[in-house]
Structure formats: structure tokens, C-alpha cells
Design brief:
DNA-binding transcription factor activity; transcription cis-regulatory region binding; DNA-binding; TetR/AcrR family transcriptional regulator; Arc Repressor Mutant, subunit A; 11 helices
């Protein structure tokens, strides 16, 4: 892919889109740790210095993709969340399962989240950090709305706690769910070692079940339970 010099805002937007699309395609082939700016430049057909006219660093590109992935996940959840009926405990467990399973089907999102704090937020300017955190806040508030739609017993603060735990657990559990070749061989060689390995979805689901149960149990007695259909 080769480009002429971008002279209009539309051409600059096309260039940015090409860089993001190229990087997204790379993430389908390799983990975040292996995505290098030099390779992005080569694949998009631009000099590294030209790529940096549009994004200040590799991390800025990946944060932009993380924001896109997060928005896409939230949009999909609108159609897959459980129906608001049954007991609060049952709805909470269903919500936990839906959040965990839906994240497990988005490996790029999980890989980006797992690299967010330790890697992606380290080589960026204040401007990029603000743009990223504001975009994340919008997605988080949409998620809070979905959580409280399923569990109206929880207020916005408790809904936000569910969202925070979901993202933090995804960040922690994803690397552990991607064992190295040596660990895979160890699991194959010793069933007792293999038994200690939990899948990503199982870890996130169980943690969310316990978090939601705890939040429901801590609701003030004076807060009337909302009416739900059965």
C-alpha cells in the first residue's frame, strides 16, 4: 500500500483509518506485545516518521483501537444481556455469565485491556491520555446503564463497581488464560498441574458472581426492592 501526500482533512482521515485498520489486522495475527511501529509502517506503506504525524506512538494507535473495541463490545451487549426477570441472584448470575462469555469471544479486546495500564498508557502525551480516558468513561457509563437495567436493585455506584471489577478481572485473567508452549506441555504431562488451570471465562464469571452477590447483600434494608416481571 502506498500513499500520496495527504493534502485535505478527508485524506488525513483516510490515512488515520488505514493505520488503524492495518494495526487491527495485525492484532488478529499476533499479540499486542509483538505489534511494532516499524511493522505497522511497513504494512501501511508509510515511513515511520509519517505514521507518527497521525499517531504519536505505537501505544497511541493501540489505545485508539482499545476504545473502538470497547465501544463495539458495549454495543453487542445491548442485544445479548439477559431478560430482566426472576430473582436478583438469578439475574446477577446470568449477567456475570453474559459479561464473561462475551469478553472471551473478543480476544483483541482482552489482549488490549491486559496491556492497558502496564504498557499502553506509558508512552503517551497528556492529550492522548485525556482522549482515551474520556472515551473509556463514556463506554463505562453505558455499561453501568446495562448492568442496572438487568439489576435495578443496584444503584449507579454499585453498577460502576461491577464494571470496574469486570475490566480489572479481564486484565488480570487474560494473560493467565494464554499459557506458553512450556506451560501447555506441563499441563499435558501432569493432570494435577492441568487441574489448576482455569479458563478466562470461568475466572471472570465466578468473580463477577461473587461481586454481584456481595453488592446485592449489602443493599440498605430500607431501599425498596424494585418490581420485576416473572
Amino acid at each position: 500500500m502506498t500513499f500520496q501526500r495527504a493534502r485535505s482533512e478527508e485524506q488525513r482521515d483516510q490515512r488515520r483509518r488505514a493505520i488503524l485498520d492495518t494495526t487491527a489486522a495485525m492484532l488478529a495475527e499476533m499479540p499486542v506485545a509483538d505489534v511494532a511501529l516499524n511493522e505497522i509502517s511497513r504494512r501501511v506503506g508509510l515511513a515511520k516518521s509519517n505514521v507518527m504525524r497521525y499517531f504519536e506512538s505505537r501505544e497511541a494507535i493501540l489505545l485508539d483501537l482499545l476504545d473502538t473495541e470497547l465501544r463495539g463490545w458495549v454495543a453487542d451487549l445491548e442485544h445479548t444481556l439477559p431478560t430482566v426477570n426472576g430473582t436478583a441472584q438469578g439475574r446477577g448470575d446470568a449477567l456475570a455469565a453474559t459479561l464473561a462469555t462475551s469478553m472471551s469471544t473478543r480476544p483483541v479486546l482482552c489482549d488490549l485491556i491486559s496491556a492497558q495500564a502496564a504498557v499502553l498508557e506509558r508512552n503517551i502525551s497528556t492529550e492522548v491520555a485525556l482522549r482515551h480516558k474520556r472515551a473509556t468513561a463514556v463506554s463505562a457509563q453505558l455499561l453501568v446503564g446495562l448492568v442496572t437495567r438487568v439489576l435495578p436493585e443496584l444503584g449507579p455506584d454499585e453498577g460502576y463497581e461491577v464494571v470496574v471489577v469486570t475490566l480489572l478481572m479481564a486484565s488480570a485473567a487474560w494473560p493467565h488464560s494464554q499459557p506458553s508452549e512450556a506451560l501447555q506441555a506441563a499441563y499435558a504431562a501432569d493432570p494435577s498441574v492441568a487441574a489448576t488451570h482455569m479458563t478466562f471465562a470461568d475466572v471472570v464469571r465466578r468473580t463477577l458472581e461473587l461481586t454481584i452477590s456481595g453488592l446485592l447483600a449489602r443493599q440498605p434494608a430500607e431501599r425498596p426492592a424494585p418490581a420485576v416481571s416473572t
